[in-house]
Amino acid sequence: MDLVEFAVANAQTELRQRLEAMLAADGLTRDVYVRYLSMQYHLTQGVQRHFMAAAGHPDMAARPKFRDFLIRLALDEEPHHAVAMQDLKSLGQKPMPAMLDVKLWWAYFNAIDHERPFVRLGAMCILENIAGGAGPILEALSSGKPFLSPKTTRFLRLRWRDDSSHGTRILEALSAAHLSVAQLNDLEQGAEEGAVLFLRMVDGCLGLGRGRPRSTAA
Fold first, then answer.
1. End-to-end distance of the chain based on CA atoms, in angstroms?
2. How far is the CA of 18 from the CAs of 9, 112, 119, 199, 203, in angstroms?
3. Whole-number Å distance between alpha carbons of 43 and 137
4. Which helix (H) or strand (E) segment is 138 a member of?
5. Which residue among 52, 73, 180, 197 is buried most deeply as judged by most CB within 10 Å?
6. Which tens digits make up the pLDDT trace of 69-109?
7. What is the pTM (predicted TM-score) of this model?
8. Most distant CA pair in the chain: distance in Å?
9. pLDDT tens per residue across span 206-218
10. What per-residue string of b and e applies to 198-211 under the rule 16 or more CB within 10 Å gives b?
11. What is the structure's pLDDT at 158?
12. What is the tens place of the pLDDT at every residue in 38-78?
């Protein structure tokens, strides 16, 4: 698990650097926020399928506690896309088209999740821990923004809280699952690849990626 935690720490640093650069420039703009919510809408819609597929993998038969954990995780994650949708509605927006890197994420993990579920679970480690330590920067970015309100920040509060307990529980559950060398290798691969893909999505939201949506017009 050391290499997974190393990948998580690197991803956290990369994210903080992007947020700090945004804070030093224009701060959080409405367009960036709409792109972010749209990206998360497409990224989380149907995400429970990956975790249900992982729970159904033969390797989980000898790990009933971890299988139960995956099922609970799937049910917990299932409604998140609806939260992003509701925030967009409160902004008077609809989800923008999925950016290229979100499509690549789904195409890649859909192709391997049934045979190599620990690759996808490695990527999960990144998504659930990447915001660790970014709370103060996010608060500074959010301060004084008229488009942010309790009705438009439900997803932000849900996923970008500076609370590592959820992500830590995922890492602890994986550590307690007594994975084989091959499974650990898949987990490490997924963490590295998940970090690359997700940070590309962040770049797209910031207007730095080729696959970003073109407009935030309603």
1. 44
2. 15, 30, 26, 9, 8
3. 23
4. helix 135-142
5. 73
6. 999 999 999 999 999 999 999 999 999 999 999 999 999 99
7. 0.91
8. 52
9. 987 554 444 444 3
10. bbbbbbbbbeebeb
11. 84
12. 999 999 999 999 999 999 999 999 999 999 999 999 999 99
- Joined tokens for residue 185: 């290798």
Distance separating alpha carbons of residues 30 and 167, to the nearest angstrom:
28
Tokens (6 digits) for 108: 């890649």
52, two tokens: 């249900």
Radius of gyration of the chain (CA): 17
Q: How do residues 150-203 score in pLDDT, each as one tens digit?
A: 999 999 888 765 455 778 889 999 999 999 999 999 999 999 999 999 999 999
Angstrom distances, CA of residue 5 to CA of 78, 117, 170: 25, 18, 12
Which domains occur in the chain, in start order? Answer: 2-205 (1.20.910.10)
Residue written as token pair 């998504």: 127
Contacts for 129 with CB less than 8 Å, ≥ 6 apart: 8, 11, 12, 164, 167, 168, 170, 171
How long, in residues, is the chain?
A: 218
Token pair listed for 210: 């080729």
Tokens 């999960």 -> residue: 124
Give the rounded distance of the alpha carbon of 180 from its chain centre: 25
- CA angle, 192 then 195 then 200, to 5°: 135
